[in-house]
């Protein structure tokens, strides 16, 4: 029933109401006390080795945490969890990457663990495997010969058993079928072609079921056709905004009453203008220290089901 979709003319089938599922209800963050840039894993890290202002990074993280706490107080999310960082795992603050949290067809939580491209990040996966197993959540190991980087490259379509998958830099195309089989979900693969956009969450921000914001420079022609077929509205964000502010690493959540709540990195000018047209509630946060490592809002959270 579930499959990898490669034909833009047919993907409308995977959005049928029979494939509806709940929205994530919780957020998990990892505290940043050990955050730093100690090696080069992406183009944004070049020139930033050991140049993180740790006190400023802590303040920026706390501002993002306060934003999420406000959303919890308003009932937009139901839970907000904090996990303490681990010494030696400086990238663990980007907790979207070690796994994807999902629901089985009967509503039970399930986790597909990542197989990170860089060995230095693999201990993060082991940590979360043990963390969630202690909580009684089933975890699934990826085949050892496949690379996959969790919610960084696997972005769920809101309210659907459909996952958009970026591949080419950190995630292997061949992982798509494994995701289908493990999570009982459709997967729509998108090839990433510019190393400024090494994860899908750097160039592809879903606003709601009908709308997505993208940087078209990140995708090949086939990928752009798939995106156009999967959404009624596609907002194109300029390359410069996408790489300088990480605008597309924003997070947009839908409240139970249907209102959109958007958390944007500072200077996301075009994206902010588009969201204002939808009358979304917008909060801008400064993430300059995390941009030095090639991450921002979307990277710094894990979406969960409670």
Descriptive notes:
This protein has about 300 residues and is an alpha/beta fold. It has one domain (about 20-305): 5-stranded Propeller (L-arginine/glycine Amidinotransferase, Chain A). Helix content is about 25%, strand content about 25%. The strands form five sheets. It has a three-stranded mixed beta sheet with strand order 2-1-15, with helices on one face. It has a three-stranded mixed beta sheet with strand order 3-4-5, sandwiched between helices. Strands 6-7-8 form a three-stranded mixed beta sheet, sandwiched between helices. Strand 4 (about 110-115), helix 2 (about 120-135) and strand 5 (about 140) form a beta-alpha-beta unit. The chain is globular, with a radius of gyration of 18 Å. The model has no long low-confidence stretch (mean pLDDT about 95).
Oligomeric state of the chains? single chain
Number of DSSP-assigned strands: 15
> Which word captures the global form?
globular
Radius of gyration equals 18 Å
Share of residues in helices: 10-25%
When the domains are counted, the total is 1
Spatial strand sequence of the major β-sheet: 2-1-15
How many helices? The count is: 8
Order of H and E elements: EHEEEHEHEEHEEEHEHEEHEHE
Q: CATH H level: which superfamily?
A: L-arginine/glycine Amidinotransferase, Chain A
Distance between the termini: 26 Å
Based on the coordinates given, report the CATH architecture. Answer: 5-stranded Propeller
- Summed over residues and divided by their number, the pLDDT gives a mean of 97
């Amino acid at each position: 029933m579930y499959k990898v979709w490669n034909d833009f003319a047919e993907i409308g089938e995977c959005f049928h109401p029979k494939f509806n599922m709940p929205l994530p209800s919780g957020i998990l963050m990892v505290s940043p006390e050990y955050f730093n840039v100690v090696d080069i894993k992406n183009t944004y890290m070049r020139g930033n080795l050991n140049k993180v202002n740790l006190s400023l990074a802590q303040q920026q993280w706390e501002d993002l945490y306060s934003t999420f706490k406000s959303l919890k107080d308003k009932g937009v999310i139901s839970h907000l969890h904090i996990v303490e960082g681990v010494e030696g795992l400086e990238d663990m603050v980007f907790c979207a990457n070690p796994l994807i949290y999902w629901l089985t067809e009967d509503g039970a939580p399930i986790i597909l663990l990542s197989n990170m491209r860089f060995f230095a990040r693999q201990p993060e996966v082991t940590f979360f495997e043990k963390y969630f197993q202690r909580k009684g959540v089933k975890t699934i190991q990826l085949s050892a010969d496949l690379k996959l980087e969790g919610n960084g490259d696997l972005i769920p379509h809101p309210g659907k058993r459909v996952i958009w998958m970026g591949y080419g830099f950190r995630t292997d195309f061949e992982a798509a079928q494994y995701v289908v089989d493990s999570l009982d979900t459709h997967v729509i693969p998108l090839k990433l072609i510019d190393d400024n956009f090494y994860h899908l969450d750097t160039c592809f921000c879903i606003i709601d079921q009908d709308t997505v914001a993208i940087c078209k420079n990140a995708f090949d022609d086939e990928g752009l056709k798939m995106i156009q077929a999967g959404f009624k509205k596609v907002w194109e964000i300029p390359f410069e905004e996408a790489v300088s502010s990480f605008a597309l690493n924003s997070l947009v959540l839908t409240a139970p009453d249907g209102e959109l709540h958007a958390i944007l990195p500072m200077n996301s000018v075009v994206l902010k203008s588009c969201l204002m047209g939808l009358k979304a509630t917008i909060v801008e946060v400064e993430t300059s220290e995390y941009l030095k490592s090639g991450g921002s809002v979307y990277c710094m959270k894990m979406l969960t089901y409670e």
